[in-house]
Design brief:
single chain; alpha/beta; three-stranded parallel β-sheet; 3 strands
């Protein structure tokens, strides 16, 4: 499960909500992330924070955390992309513009 949250939510809040759920399902992968500009992140001031940029950040994060990177998230296993609020538009843009064979649903 890859979560694209609303702009006013954070990784930390969702971690509190999703940790007990993930504990009930051994083997479940959950990838939470903060958008550039949120807690503990930086971005270039001239960078437009839109769906194009956020989806590219997600793509880079999946590459970094996946099999070609740190291997903290197995991007070869089927996963779902959950987007709500602002995150729904980021998730939809990612799903329609990036080729990810393991993505099973939005």
């Amino acid at each position: 499960l890859v979560v694209c949250h609303d702009f006013f939510d954070t990784f930390e809040r969702l971690k509190i909500v999703l940790t007990p759920i993930a504990a009930r399902y051994p083997g479940l992968q959950v990838l939470l992330w903060n958008y550039p500009g949120q807690a503990f992140t930086e971005w270039r001031e001239e960078q437009l924070l839109n769906n194009v940029f956020m989806a590219s950040c997600l793509s880079e994060l999946l590459t970094h955390a996946g099999k070609r990177g740190t291997k903290q998230f197995d991007d070869s296993k089927p996963f779902y992309l959950l987007g709500y609020g602002y995150g729904a538009s980021v998730a939809a843009f990612y799903a329609t513009h990036y080729r990810q064979p393991a993505l099973r649903g939005l």
